[in-house]
């Protein structure tokens, strides 16, 4: 598990599961289906990603495809960070 | 309005001494500060605390017939007592007082226990029929007035409030895990269950008859809707006329009192309508309202518009953030159950102001949303049902944006997530609880904070399954709106709206609420109306607006529904919050009480405390659930503060 996944898992464990057993959720599980992130919870998640990873989540990126599992979130953040690196290099 | 208590030996045996009754009645003094009385005959003991409203001089209780064979202790009002009295006089009854209480005795003499069907009112009473050695207890149809009981070694012990039962020897307070689980699903336990083990609540519309050593609890009234297939050809104009006439009469009989009657004015349509109707009977009507610091909760602009339009003599109470936390321990002592919102605390403060102004009775607009289809949950269910027919539709869920305009957090959500939330149970459109599944699921998120012990005790109990099993046989034949109305009227109205947010916080200061929309004739008419006259498209309370709208300013009539709310966790998590909050939420206190997981609560509190971040509805409810349960435990089980 990479650093992004660990940080995301920890955030979800503390803020939505309120328990130490953040491990109880699998990498692929849908956070919506499991009732872990509710309709306003996604705004908290986005705010965490922006603050913690220094990325900007665009409105049209707030989609379950990007944000509905730890794996999806980690990949999304990794893509955003990669894109920023490319931008900076250019 | 009063408090009642007593006990009755199911079979002849030595009864607890009358001092016990004295202590039980004393525990209800707040409900009836004006007078008190006791009847005791060795088999039955009836006690009463009185708030004098009708027949100030002659209405003392317990009251008996001239021959001393019937005794009654009664809390509430029989609003149609004037008409009933005439009817009973014509049948030869001899009245000794002018009180509504005496109509119960004479009606019972005439009709037996079935007399309850002739009462139009908000009542809870216990009647001792000495000749037949029978005790009859009854409660009004909608559950306005409370009545609890427990069995203790063959003795039926009853009271208006649970705290009074604890004054009876051997009745011990312990919270009921299943009652808690219901609170954290439906916002209140469903009668007969209560938050306390072995304590039952007589359900609304039921009576209890104890005789020959047997105790029977049975309904005398049930809420019914016509089958969906039935086409009622009631025109809009005729329906509006019927609604107007009936509400005018329901209000008229609710103005009956020998003390002045005031009214609550929230700024919404319902209380404005009842106030306008009441004004016709009392030109100098006094109104009361709440104001809040937070602009999204405050309705004072609308209240002022109404006061000006209706010409009432008005007092407003500005509820400050600190006031809610300060009063909350007393509020929970009165609600006798955990609550998931702070709103009852503000009404507790308002009733104190009403009493300080010398008023004992207020009319309110409660019930209009249940009876005439006003709540957003009805619209939500309609949109979800429409969407469920084409689950892949991209534009159908966009209608969800039209719901809850007052919830900024919800409005700012990305469409995909709004859609995902309301998708809860979308594939279960034939589930009888379809309309309420998202709300129940949101509230049940509180269960993630349960301690291991609580989880183990609950042991897989499913309150939704129990509710499904208890629905009337004909439920599935009703229109979806009727089904949603039924669930709302059964699950939220009696236990939360009329109890935690109604009777308990009003009677804490000896103030009686009266509800014209909950006159059973109005309820029955509302149930029989075609659904489109209630929720027309997405326009709520359609026929009601037409019936009463012309009496009110346009800005009020056209105003979208704004539910009454007060600040939740933020009321308790600021620098000046009272010390008890920190003490009760500390891990040691959470562990000592044993209902919740200390580490989970610590994280929840830290999250709610974070500056700059709106606390979600789910987190706010969980916070309120934990704090109120801790207070309840500390008040009734074992002091924690």
Describe this structure in a few short sentences.
By secondary structure, chain A is an all-alpha fold.
Strand-helix topology:
The complex is a heterodimer of chains A (90) and B (641).
Chain A: H1 3-17, H2 41-53, H3 64-67, H4 70-89
Helix pairs in contact in A: 1-2, 1-4
Chain B: E1 2-9, H1 18-26, E2 35-40, E3 44-50, E4 63-64, E5 70-78, H2 81-90, H3 101-111, E6 121-129, E7 134-139, E8 148-152, E9 155-159, H4 162-165, H5 177-186, E10 200-201, E11 206-211, E12 214-219, H6 236-254, E13 261-264, H7 269-279, E14 286-292, H8 300-310, E15 313-319, H9 321-335, H10 343-356, E16 361-363, H11 368-372, H12 376-388, H13 408-411, H14 415-422, H15 437-444, H16 452-458, H17 463-469, H18 480-491, H19 493-507, E17 512-514, H20 520-528, H21 531-534, H22 542-548, H23 554-557, H24 579-585, H25 587-593, H26 598-609, H27 617-636
Helix pairs in contact in B: 2-3, 5-15, 6-20, 6-22, 9-10, 9-27, 10-19, 12-18, 18-19, 25-26, 26-27
* Total beta strand runs of chain B: 17
What is the multimeric organization of the chains shown?
heterodimer
Shape of chain B: globular
User: Any idea of the CATH class of one domain in chain B?
Assistant: Alpha Beta
Question: Separation of termini of chain A?
Answer: 30 Å
Can you summarize the main beta sheet of chain B? 6 strands, antiparallel
Which chains have the largest interface?
A: A-B, 20 and 27 residues
How many whole angstroms does the radius of gyration of chain B measure? 24 Å
